[in-house]
Amino acid sequence: MTEMTMIEAINFTLRQEMEEDENVLILGEDIGRNGGVFRATDGLIDTFGERRVVDTPLAESAIIGTAVGMAVRGLKPVAEIQFLGFIYETMDQIAAQAARIRFRSAGNYHAPMVIRAPYSGGVKTPELHSDSLEALFMHSAGIKVIMPSTPRDAKGLLSAAIADPDPVLFLEPMKLYRALRENVEEKRFKIEVGKANVVKEGSDITLISWGAAMAETKKAVQMLEENGYSIELIDLRTIVPLDEEAIIDSVMKTSRCVIVHEAVKSAGVGAEISAIINEKALFYISAPVLRVTGYDSPYPVATVENDWIPSMDRIVREVKHVWELSLD
Amino acid sequence: MNWIEPNSIDVNPIQQLNEQGVLTGETSISDEDKLEVYKWMVKARRFDELAVKLQRQGRIGTYAPLIGQEAAQVGSAFALGEKDWIFPSYREVGACFVRGTSPSSFFKYAMGHLHGGILKEEGIFPVQIIIGAQALHATGSAWADQYKTNDAVSVAYVGDGATSQGDFHEALNFASVFQLPVIYFVQNNQWAISVPYDKQTNSQSIAQKALAYDMTGVQVDGNDAIAVYETMKQARSLARDGKPVLIEALTHRMGPHTTSDDPSKYRAKEGEEEWGDKDPIFRYRKWLEDMQLWSEEEEQDLNASIEEELKQAFNEAAETTTASLGDALGHVYEKPTNRLKEQILEWEGSGESK
């Protein structure tokens, strides 16, 4: 066991996976000599050389498009998009190429590749650096979407992502890169893709969140517990596949649910979860499912971002609101 | 003044076999291969004619004709090695045939069969619909070969329209920076659906775009199978040494973009006649006949055997059992997610409502 921050865990895992399999290579902008703008790839070029740690020209579509070609031909590329907001540049190569190659070749070709990208607000980045865009990819069949919230989860999920036979988008909350340290096993381990984590059990209300939003959600849970509520907290870990079973089981037990995500409200992942509960557990719930989310605007300027991001206060307020609306 | 001016760039197309079927250059191609190339071109054209007819009869779906581009496609693909990979667009039927695709695969593709997109299990990427996207896949494939020190090249087949796309330029840039064994084979057929070459780019040639990337670029008469073949052979040898190449094959799409458009709406008849005189098959046949390598009788035998083969290929496609939606949904991920399993069951009518 070693104490690691999330960024250390990611760096450690990349090194470990590259040592394990010679076909794993990493590519992206500034990931080599500079070690990545957040140091996720720090030092890897010294160990593995420029052949396996590739500083690419500044071209997002080419980073992903060439990775598709590599992956189909037997390599395991781990590509970095420097900030998730830049991913629009490569939307075709992800959604129309990587995600679809298996389907349109009836399983003959597949692209086992990982796309890593930092996202999330609260760190006062310039425009288009912070957006949470997971819903775009949930809507693009064929790709998996993983969003860890702890160093340990980042390690186990990144190992699983690299081993996964499908293309995986691995979204890293930059706000949590160095926010906490925890003990992480050094030996290789995988956390199953598609399995949510019941962070804590409770009986009154289910709180569902993931990635960056887990930080404020955890604070809210603590505050609510101090106020006498028994909260069940679920960290989804994976957006696609979505652990519907964990969601339904929990909601059937607590009969109330609040979903917290940093992305905008409209057509967000929270809407999908709410619809699932409506379809599969309507008669077990005693209050409408509510969402605490970012507002329906582009990610805002730094001076107002803390009002835009779901805060502990907003989460606590909505949980209490659900409690008040309950039929029983 | 040290200005780099476009008009100082000199681009002259390579031609070996002229419009009259006279060999004006040199070729290393054996007599046996001369005939092979011809047979592939004729097969591509007969397939094309039949596919258009079948589409008009409603027996296959939308089809993108290749007529006029047989020399560019066959000549280039014929120069490749066994382990090389090609990344075709939807119009590369001729190139895919040479690389081992069966005609029934293309019929299946046009008929919307589940396995229609697989043109061969190795060496040919599924046809690309998004213009230019395959330029990057070929680049990545070449990268994989370089990484694994495989002796193979990857070839992206794109059209003139694709050279306006960012992906095309990003691909050339990457290939040059990383010195990848890749060839970008542009069939400049003069039209991107209804938009002519001079409205697609203001460059005098596509070949000259290679200069910006410090790559080798070359323009070749795309209706001359011999020149295309020889150029491709040289390009392949350069690419294997980590020197990527951009080839512009000047040709002409004699038919519509697809069976859904009408070229008379966007192009004049006059220019067409001029291209008719440059027919790639006509000049090649004349050359073979002048060398006493081909006769009218052999032509008739070839056509009869192709007709029979294509008939059988169509029947095979037509008789192929339609896949179920359930089968198709099984190919989204390696293993269907629980959501997909539920949807497959629902589609099969045996879904349990919870």
TrEMBL record, chain A:
Which species does the entry assign this protein to? Answer: Salicibibacter cibarius
* One GO MF term: oxidoreductase activity
- Quote the InterPro entries the UniProt record gives: THDP-binding, Transketo_C/PFOR_II, Transketolase-like_Pyr-bd, Transketolase_C
Protein name stated in the entry: Alpha-ketoacid dehydrogenase subunit beta
Task: Keyword check for tRNA processing, yes or no.
Answer: no
Q: What residues does the Transketolase-like pyrimidine-binding domain cover? A: 4-179
Identify the cofactor(s). Answer: thiamine diphosphate
Which UniProt keywords are listed? Oxidoreductase, Thiamine pyrophosphate
Q: What CDD domains has UniProt attached to this entry?
A: TPP_PYR_E1-PDHc-beta_like
TrEMBL record, chain B:
Coiled-coil stretches noted in the UniProt entry, renumbered to this chain: 296-323
Subunit info here reads: Heterodimer of an alpha and a beta chain.
Q: What SUPFAM superfamilies does this protein's entry cite?
A: Thiamin diphosphate-binding fold (THDP-binding)
- One Gene Ontology term of the molecular function aspect: pyruvate dehydrogenase (acetyl-transferring) activity
Q: What processes in GO biological process is this protein linked to?
A: branched-chain amino acid catabolic process
The organism that produces this protein has a lineage beginning with: Bacteria, Bacillati, Bacillota, Bacilli, Bacillales
In what residue span(s) does the Dehydrogenase E1 component domain sit?
38-322
Q: Which organism is it from?
A: Salicibibacter cibarius
What EC numbers are recorded for this enzyme? 1.2.4.1
Q: What name appears for this protein in its UniProt entry?
A: Pyruvate dehydrogenase E1 component subunit alpha
Catalytic reaction(s) noted = N(6)-[(R)-lipoyl]-L-lysyl-[protein] + pyruvate + H(+) = N(6)-[(R)-S(8)-acetyldihydrolipoyl]-L-lysyl-[protein] + CO2
InterPro entries annotated for this entry?
A: Alpha-ketoacid_DH_E1_comp, DH_E1, PdhA/BkdA, THDP-binding
Alphabetically sorted, this entry's keywords are: Coiled coil, Oxidoreductase, Pyruvate, Thiamine pyrophosphate
- Which branch of life, at top level? Bacteria
Q: State the function annotated in the UniProt record.
A: The pyruvate dehydrogenase complex catalyzes the overall conversion of pyruvate to acetyl-CoA and CO(2). It contains multiple copies of three enzymatic components: pyruvate dehydrogenase (E1), dihydrolipoamide acetyltransferase (E2) and lipoamide dehydrogenase (E3).
Query: Which cofactors, by name?
Result: thiamine diphosphate
